[in-house]
Design brief:
The chain is α+β, with helices and mostly antiparallel strands. The chain has helices at about 1-5, 25-35, 60-70, and strands at about 10-20, 40-45, 50-60, 75-85, 95.
Length: about 100
């Protein structure tokens, strides 16, 4: 049973998305995918033009969200995605655009 618990352990993934990702529906797209995957967190515009994505949930779901952020279906133009993994902090239910 411990193997199952480990496989389903929650993580926190923070990603900074570089490119033309503001004003093109990128945060809405991110929220939509994250909610489908059952993740909690937010997508926020940063003053330097990047979008910061913070997601908590199963590692597989966070990796699938990263794949979506890097996919051709993501709105705008994604030049790069920088990610950081950490322990979850207990994000509130839901996924928000900020």
């Amino acid at each position: 049973m411990s193997g199952v618990a480990t496989a389903a352990a929650n993580v926190r993934m923070t990603a900074w998305v570089h490119g033309q990702v503001q004003g093109v529906g990128f945060r809405w797209f991110t929220r939509s995918v994250a909610l489908e995957l059952g993740l909690r967190g937010s997508a926020s515009n940063l003053s330097d033009g990047r979008v910061e994505v913070v997601a908590e949930g199963p590692e597989d779901g966070c990796r699938r969200l990263l794949d979506a952020l890097r996919s051709p279906q993501a709105p705008g133009r994604v030049d790069s995605v920088v990610e950081r993994w950490s322990e979850p902090k207990g994000a509130p239910p839901g996924f928000f655009e900020r």
